């Protein structure tokens, strides 16, 4: 017999001596074959409702595999969830103001661009279009701020990072709510209210449509920039299909940067033309990692887009505003107030920050390096990269910093205090999994992402909203948590009001 009641009780007892009320216990015991049938039903339901990805091992444009997910939703304090939701418009606003402050961006990245070729290429692109004069004053941001609960700080949410380009999984998490179906199958209808409503996809797509409407050309199209092989195709396509549902007359074109280099052109009036159509909005789902730029052709394509009148999501300024060096600089005392004049807003944002340290070749940088070398398990070492699989932990921090101790290379990294989230137990459901052999509970930690949209015309903020959320979990033994990268799995927050988390 599989005692789900006992399993759920275990889930609510964290390994770091964090205690939660047994609000999720299930008064149901299932025979082993019934449990296996339930898992298969959940996998079928998930993939048939869009919860799919391309297989990395056997990639095919004609097949999907189920996106990995947790069997059970993860407990999360309602008050901290609401705190992250309520602060998102202020973070949207902060991103916009930062992106338009050239002096600040340069001060943050001047040392990084000396040693990091990718960031240098992005910054040079930014300087090029800035010196020419930006062709488009309007910009769209589809942002995602990621958080972990920190049991060392009263179980409050602490920001891991702010994503300003290709912020993903708004589609999958709102179109395939597997945990709602699970509760329905278990007869736990009273628990559905603990799963917060999530309309991330609708909200994100409404932002794209409003940008298209602002462009004011009914014959124009939306261009989505994708990778050469889109593993996360369902999440991307759901945006395209939701746009079609909300605005049937609006056409969407998908191209990678190589195709743009070969097929697109810039008119004399700086209109971006693709397939004979004028592009109103460019939505980047690629372009955030060096792997997406195979040659100078892809960089030329990115420059063409930035030079155009198309509304970019994000434009190059927003892209740079999401770098780790900018995140670290904003955490320094007094810096937030440069952009956020409202004292309450700046105070609330600062409470979300954890310790962030520059590693420049100066006295402060030397102190940060010494902290990391003395106690590497307390920190995370981060480069200027997105997409998962880039950060260093533990002894890898010591090895990396030792190798670049007196080199400018260390300036391209930042040091962040390691956040200590509560550990819960869960079943991780993956494709091609033999559940008879691999059905044990795993220790996992969960990361919450909050989506926001901001649409601006110069200094005029036209739309500024929080529009949804996502959650992903990973094994405690795994440092990275990207679902696309293969380490994390999709999850849902189970909100409870009484969440007395503490360390023994």
Automatic annotation (TrEMBL):
GO cellular component: cytosol
GO molecular function, one term: magnesium ion binding
Keyword Methyltransferase: no
Binding site for Mg(2+): 161, 163, 386
UniProt domain Glutathione synthase substrate-binding: residue ranges: 221-321
Top-level lineage group: Eukaryota
Entry's EC annotation: 6.3.2.3
Bound cofactor: record note: Binds 1 Mg(2+) ion per subunit.
Enzyme class: ligase
Record-linked Pfam families: GSH_synth_ATP (PF03917), GSH_synthase (PF03199)
Binding locations of ATP: 144, 161, 324, 382-391, 393, 416-419, 447, 474, 480
Record field: catalytic activity: gamma-L-glutamyl-(2S)-2-aminobutanoate + glycine + ATP = ophthalmate + ADP + phosphate + H(+); gamma-L-glutamyl-L-cysteine + glycine + ATP = glutathione + ADP + phosphate + H(+)
InterPro entries documented for this protein: Glutathione_synthase, Glutathione_synthase_a-hlx, Glutathione_synthase_C_euk, Glutathione_synthase_N_euk, GSH-S_sub-bd_sf, GSH_synth_subst-bd, PreATP-grasp_dom_sf
Bilayer-crossing regions: none
Keywords from the UniProt entry: ATP-binding, Glutathione biosynthesis, Ligase, Magnesium, Metal-binding, Nucleotide-binding
Cofactors required: Mg(2+)
Pathway: Sulfur metabolism; glutathione biosynthesis; glutathione from L-cysteine and L-glutamate: step 2/2
Binding site for substrate: 236, 472
NCBIfam families, per database record: glut_syn_euk
Family: Belongs to the eukaryotic GSH synthase family.
Purpose of the protein: Catalyzes the production of glutathione from gamma-glutamylcysteine and glycine in an ATP-dependent manner. Glutathione (gamma-glutamylcysteinylglycine, GSH) is the most abundant intracellular thiol in living aerobic cells and is required for numerous processes including the protection of cells against oxidative damage, amino acid transport, the detoxification of foreign compounds, the maintenance of protein sulfhydryl groups in a reduced state and acts as a cofactor for a number of enzymes. Participates in ophthalmate biosynthesis in hepatocytes.
Subunit structure: Homodimer.
Protein name listed in UniProt: Glutathione synthetase
Organism: Sipha flava
């Amino acid at each position: 017999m599989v005692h789900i009641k006992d399993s759920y009780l275990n889930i609510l007892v964290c390994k770091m001596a964090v205690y939660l009320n047994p609000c999720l216990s299930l008064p149901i015991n299932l025979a082993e074959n019934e449990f296996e049938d339930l898992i298969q039903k959940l996998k079928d339901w998930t993939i048939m409702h869009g919860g799919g990805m391309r297989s990395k091992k056997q990639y095919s444009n004609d097949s999907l595999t189920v996106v990995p997910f947790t069997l059970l939703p993860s407990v999360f304090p309602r008050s901290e969830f609401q705190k992250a939701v309520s602060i998102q418009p202020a973070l949207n606003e902060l991103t916009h103001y930062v992106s338009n402050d050239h002096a600040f961006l340069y001060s943050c990245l001047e040392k990084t661009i000396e040693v990091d070729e990718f960031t240098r290429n992005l910054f040079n692109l930014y300087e090029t279009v800035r010196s020419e004069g930006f062709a488009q004053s309007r910009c769209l941001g589809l942002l995602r701020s990621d958080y972990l609960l920190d049991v060392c700080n009263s179980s409050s949410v602490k920001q891991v990072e702010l994503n300003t380009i290709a912020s993903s999984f708004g589609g999958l998490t709102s179109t395939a709510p597997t945990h709602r179906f699970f509760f329905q199958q278990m007869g736990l209808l009273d628990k559905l209210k603990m799963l917060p409503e999530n309309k991330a996809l609708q909200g994100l797509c409404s932002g794209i449509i409003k940008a298209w409407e602002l462009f004011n050309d009914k014959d124009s199209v939306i261009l989505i920039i994708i990778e050469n092989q889109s593993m996360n195709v369902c999440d991307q396509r759901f945006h395209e299909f939701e746009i079609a549902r909300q605005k049937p007359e609006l056409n969407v074109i998908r191209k990678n940067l190589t195709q743009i280099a070969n097929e697109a052109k810039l008119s004399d009036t700086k209109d971006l033309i693709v397939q004979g159509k004028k592009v109103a909005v460019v939505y980047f789902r690629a372009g955030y990692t060096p792997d997406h730029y195979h040659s100078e052709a892809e960089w030329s394509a990115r420059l063409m887009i930035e030079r155009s009148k198309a509304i970019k999501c994000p434009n190059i300024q927003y892209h740079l505003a999401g770098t780790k060096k900018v995140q670290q600089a904003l955490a320094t005392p007094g810096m937030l107030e440069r952009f956020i004049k409202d004292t309450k807003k700046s105070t609330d944002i600062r409470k979300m920050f954890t310790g962030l340290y520059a590693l420049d070749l100066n006295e402060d940088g030397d102190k940060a390096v010494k902290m990391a070398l003395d106690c590497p398990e307390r920190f995370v070492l981060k480069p200027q990269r997105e997409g998962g699989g880039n950060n260093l932990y533990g002894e890898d921090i010591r090895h990396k910093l030792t190798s670049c101790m007196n080199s400018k290379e260390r300036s391209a990294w930042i040091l962040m205090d390691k956040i200590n989230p509560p550990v819960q137990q869960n079943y991780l459901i993956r494709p091609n999994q033999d559940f008879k052999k691999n059905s044990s509970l795993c220790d996992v930690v969960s990361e919450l992402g909050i989506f926001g949209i901001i649409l601006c015309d110069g200094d005029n903020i036209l739309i500024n909203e929080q529009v949804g959320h996502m959650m992903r979990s990973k094994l405690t033994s795994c440092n990275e948590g990207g679902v696309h990268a293969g380490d994390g799995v999709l999850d849902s927050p189970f909100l409870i009001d009484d969440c007395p988390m503490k360390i023994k």
